[in-house]
Every structure is written in structure tokens, then in C-alpha cells.
Amino acid sequence: MGLLKKKTGKKKHSMSRFASGGGGGGTEISPLRPSYVEKLPPCLGHCPSGNDIRGWLKLIAEREKVGMSLEEALDAAWRLEVETNPFPAVMGRVCPHPCEDHCNRKEKDGAVAINSVERFIGDWGLERKLELPTVDAGGPFPEKVAVVGAGPAGLSVAYQLARRGYGVTVFEAFPKAGGMLRYGIPVYRLPREVLDAEIQRILDLGVELRCGTTIGREITLDGLRKEYDAVFLGIGAHRGRKMGIPGEDGPGVYTGTEFLNRANEGGDVAVGNRVVVIGGGDTAVDAARVCKRLTADSAAVSKRMGAEVTILYRRTRAEMPAIEREIEEALEEGITLEYLAAPIRILRDAEGRVTGMVVQRMELGEPDESGRRRPVPVEGDTFEIECDTVVMAVSQQPDWESLGTALPSEGSWLETDEWGRTSIDGVWSGGDVRGLGLATISIGQGRKAAESIHATLRGEELPAEDPRPPIGADRIKMEFYPEKARAERAVLSPEERLARPFDEADLGITREQALEEATRCFSCGLCFACENCWMYCQNNCFKKLPEPTVGRYYEIDLATCDGCKKCWEECPCGYIDGQ
User: Strand, coil or helix: what is 463?
Assistant: First the structure.
């Protein structure tokens, strides 16, 4: 946990007189005496990467309390961030930040802008040319590990193993590393120089990268298993799926992954003046916004036009899984969203060119297995849309043929346990090959697979589950914290975005905003030196530590405690428990 020492929940008091940090001490006197119990904050509990968000926010916010300079604090925050996520600048741009959805500050004046601060920290690391930290795990080790796929999962596992002292070779079928980060996310959302810089840091640890190498052609999976001591499969899900409707085969119709792959790499993508994108996820919104950019010219931009782009989605806006901010920006750019609509046939002329589609009007029925209400056709209610290009961004799946071996049948996913272990001896897996998900999920799966590979090769136990009890908003004294407005990112105007279609559209937050935003963190479940316990205690039980560190500021003299419980009643962040 970097500068924050990990606690293991409540501990029985020893015979020591003092309790400091996360333990207790002294002789039992009253059942109401306090103890320090570090809690699991909801931001960390809902970060698929397992990032210590509270930790790096506190390093910034409390730097002066522990005698750190701003430079030292930001360097330390970056090092703590990359313990679990080697892509802070990338994820600070593209992660939909589920951590913020669960932030306890939502109950007061809005969630902490965690993702914005993450981007600031990531960019700080790039500007400073900070090197990824290694881990003293007893290496270097003689075992070699093969990683198939250089997406976020594969690069995450490569990073975590290389920093522990293993030789890692990454095999990538595409010309460059990055997976869906490169071939699925448009450059105006993720500048390639940012992605390249964060990938290079991983390679600088000694990871060997072999691009343009397809498993099943140059080398087989069985061959890798013989040559390497462990194999990680992170081939992603790059094969887009069509819908099986009449007229979908032929020119003018793309899958979402195919379209973004070609567009992102500067390939020849023929896009007409009337485009229909089918789907409601990030791929659909990205494809629609790229279509708008590919067809924009200076005259059209002045009228915020370009191609007429329509997104068809079979549910309503409330059910759209795409990032809300991306949907808003698409609407600002003049893209039309047609809800409760699903195509049933694509129309073509005598030469085979797309001319339009027949669309079925839908209504919402009972919830399906996803928890969302199922779209149901409205009998007899259809209409036509004119179009000359169709992008089907409805789903995608792994390309099993690229692996060249007998694995699950086409359309299914590779099954693993929670540590990424497959049914094939010596083979682990993670990322979209296990099921479509977020890049942050892939990064977390890669880390856990690396921990499992390391434990297996060393004959060690797997890391234990986090024992810290979770803490919710009900344990936070909201009134203690002053109102503070949330920092909002600067974004180019719609006119600027279309005039400079492939410049980065989101400008992030300033240094001043990031430093102030870090102070909005409640420090849920961990001391932040508010001094309430020290001030309210009538018996002077709390002693300030002469050399405090982030999260550790006091010790408790239990011999003088009479169990008045005022300290844990007044602790605003829920760190102090009464026994």
C-alpha cells in the first residue's frame, strides 16, 4: 500500500500501553474504549484494477502534514497508482470510473473527480519521465512467461511479472501493441503518444515485444507451452458480430470493431453522407463520432454538419451502457439518437449499394438477465431510414482462428477462475477473451493472473482477500466537511472538435484543480489528522506522533481512557471504532 500501511481489521489489545496507527494496546478497562480500524473505502472496493485511490488522493491532500514537498507527493502518488495500474495517463482518459459512482461524497456535493486527478497524476509521470517501480520478490528468476496479446490485460500481466524478475515475451498479431486501447478507441479520446509512452515504460523493464506474430501461424499454443513455464492468453475480442438480418452482407456495412480498427489506423474507410450506427455502447458512440469527423470539411463544420449520423438503439437513453459524457458530446456534435428502434432489413439498389434500412419500433418489456428491461417489437410499427453506410456496433467476440488451436467454440468465452487459471495446465487468461468488459477490468485481471503465476512458479500461497471492512456513507459525518464544488474538465467546443477532428477533445483539469480536488476526499475509514479525537478527549488519551506518515498521526494511551466514546462518535471519517 505504498506509504499507507495495510491494516487487517480489529486486533486484540496487547499489554502495551499505547495503540497507534491500526492497532490497540494497553490493559482492558472499558468496553467502550477506542481502537483504530482501517476500513475499505468504496472507491477502492469498486475499482476493478484494485487501485488504492484513497491512498494517492491522501498523499496529495496531506503532503504538508507529513513534511512532503508537492513534487515528492506527486511522485509518490504516481508510484502508488502504478502499483496496480501501469496506465494512469491512459485510464485517466478512457476509464468510465465506476469508483466515482460509489464515492461516499456523492451523498454530499458530488463524487470526487477521481478520474480527472488520475489523468493529472498520469500526465505528471510522463512529464517527469518516471520509471515503473520493480518489486523485490527474490528474483531474477529463471522461468520464462509467454503473453499472447498486447492489450491492457496482456501488458498488465507482463508488467507485473517483469517487475518481479521474470523474463516475459509478448506476442501480438497486430502491427503495434495496445489492443483495443489502440485499435478500438479514437485518437481524439486517447492520443497515441500517451499510449505509446506508457507502453514503452513496460518494455523498458525488459519485456520483449513481438508484433505481427500470430499464434497458430508462426508458433502454436502447444509450442509456447513447451518453451515457456507459463502462458497468458489475452487475445481480446476483436471480431465484430453482425445481426443476421437481410442485406447486411456486402459493401457499405461494417462491424464496429472493423470500422474503428481501420479508421484508427488511417485505413481507407468509405463513409457516405448518411450513416446509421447500430448499438448503445462505447463502440457505437465512438464509431458515430468518428464518422462525423471523417466526413467533416471546413464549410460543413461551420454549420456543425458533416455526415448525417444516426445512432439506433433498441432501448432508451437510460439503458445505454456508453459513457454518459461521450453521449452528451455526440449530441453536441449533431449526432441523432433514435431510441427504441432496431433494424430488420438493409436495403440495397441494383448495384448492391446501401440505400437505407427498415427499422422496427420497440417498446420495453420485463427485465432480462442483465437487469435491463427487454426490448419488445411493437407489432406492425416499422419505418424506413435513408442511409449509405451502416456500422453494426452490437457485439464482438474473440477471434479463435487467430489462436490456431482447439479452444471454446466460436462465440463463447474462455472460462477461468478468479485468478485467471484456465482448464489447460500452465495457461492463464484475462481481458475480453473472458467476456466483454472495461479496460480497467482487463488490467485488474492481468495483475491477478500475474500474482497467480508468480505464486504457482514459486510454490507460494495466493494473496489473501482484503480483510478490511467496507465503509459506507452512513459512517461519515458529512457536516464536518465543508462544501466544495467538484472540478470539471475543460472540453473543446463542438465547433472546435469538428474543426480539429483528431485533436484531443478533453483537456482535463489544471494542476490547481487537481490539488484542490484531492482535498475533497473524505479519507473514508483512515485518519487524516482532523484532530477531533485529540480535541474532544478529556483525559488526553491521544498523543501526536512525532514523525507522522500519511494515515498515521496519533497513538492512543489506553491506560488513561475511561471509555467515554466521544472520540469515535466525533471521528468524521469512521476510522475509530469503539470496543
Answer: coil
Q: What is the pLDDT of residue 192?
A: 96
Cα–Cα distance, 213 to 233 (Å, whole number): 14
Question: Which cell goes with 450?
Answer: 500475474
Burial 366-391 (b: 16+ CB within 10 A, else e): eeeeeeebebeeeeeeeeebebbbbb
The C-alpha cell at 383 is: 419505418
Sign of the Cα torsion 536, 19, 520, 571 reads: negative
Helical pair 53-61 and 70-81, crossing angle rounded to 10 deg: 180
Q: pTM for the complete prediction?
A: 0.90
Reported as a single tens digit per residue, the pLDDT across 313-352 is 999 999 999 999 999 999 999 999 999 999 999 999 999 9
In which residue are the cell numbers 507459463 written? 230
At residue 561 the predicted structure's pLDDT band, cuts being 50, 70 and 90, is: confident
Choose among 95, 137, 126, 114: nearest CA to 52.
Answer: 114
Distance of CA 76 to the CA centre of its chain: 21
Q: For cell 448495384, what's the residue?
A: 351
Strand partners, 93: none
Please state, in angstroms and rounded to a whole number, the distance separating the CA atoms of residues 505 and 496.
8
Q: What is the DSSP letter of 304?
A: T
Cα 128 from Cα 195, distance rounded (Å)? 16
Domains and their CATH numbers in the chain: 18-130+470-578 (no CATH), 144-238+398-458 (3.50.50.60), 239-396 (3.50.50.60)
pLDDT value of position 300:
44
* 3-class secondary structure, 256: helix
Q: Are 487 and 540 in contact (CB under 8 A)?
A: no
C-alpha dihedral over 34, 37, 38, 41, to 10 degrees?
A: -90
By CB atoms closer than 10 A (0-12, 13-18, 19+), residue 500 is middle
CB 412 within 8 A of CB 396: no
Q: What is the pLDDT of residue 306?
A: 63
Give the 3-state secondary structure of residue 393.
coil
DSSP 8-state class, residue 464? P
Helices (H) and strands (E) in the chain, counts: 19, 22
The tens digit of pLDDT for each residue in 198-241 reads 999 999 999 999 999 988 777 888 899 999 999 999 988 888 88
Residue 377 carries which DSSP code? Answer: E
Which is more confidently placed, 151 or 557?
A: 151
State the residue for C-alpha cell 468524521.
572
The per-residue pLDDT of the chain, averaged, comes to 89
Vertex 221 angle, CA 215 and 225, to 5°:
135
CA angle 210, 211, 215 (to 5 degrees): 80
DSSP state letters, 162-196: HTTT-EEEEEESSSSS-THHHHTS-TTTS-HHHHH
